[in-house]
Write a structure and sequence with these properties.
Helix content is about 5%, strand content about 70%. By secondary structure, the chain is mainly β. Strands 1, 2, 3, 4, 5, 6, 7 and 8 form an eight-stranded antiparallel beta sheet that branches.
Length: about 150
């Protein structure tokens, strides 16, 4: 297998940045009590046989959601970190009954806590087109590392 270069667009609060990468894409996001939505746009060609996504995060406060969407907007993977107290976590779990349970909560401590987690997702024979990674931060204090790799045969 050989790795192909990829053109990736970053959208940060309305600003569009483009970066040409040869092989892997690695992006580190640092949040300081940040509330914003970020997107990574990943164009996938017909010659791509596999996409590999890897995310690792650690937060001291707030809520951080990551979603991978295919070109049709279908969710292909997601995770959530939320640094809250145990009482808040119990309340949120009760509210989540019957809702989308593709997110998990990582809770530590009695008051404001830390949460850490990671997600790996491999998509074989991905649909060609514009894939999107949505990163939704609400009052987040922490870090998220994102790695995306496209492979052709």
């Amino acid at each position: 297998m050989k790795k192909i270069g990829m053109l990736v667009c970053f959208i940060f609060s309305g600003l569009i940045l483009q970066a040409q990468q040869d092989g892997d894409l690695s992006v580190d996001f640092d949040f300081e009590n940040t509330t914003e939505v970020k997107e990574i746009l990943v164009p996938i060609g017909t010659d791509v046989s596999k996409i590999m996504f890897q995310f690792s995060g650690k937060i001291k406060g707030g809520s951080l959601k990551v979603r991978i969407l295919d070109p049709n907007g279908k969710k292909e993977g997601a995770f959530q970190l939320e640094a809250v107290s145990r009482d808040e976590a119990k309340e949120k779990s009760e509210q989540q009954e019957g809702e989308d349970k593709s997110y998990t909560y990582s809770i530590i401590g009695k008051s404001r806590s830390q949460a850490r987690g990671s997600m790996r997702k491999q998509v074989s024979k991905p649909m060609p087109g514009q894939w999107k990674v949505e990163i939704d931060a609400y009052s987040v204090d922490g870090k998220l590392d994102a790695n995306i790799q496209q492979i052709t045969e």
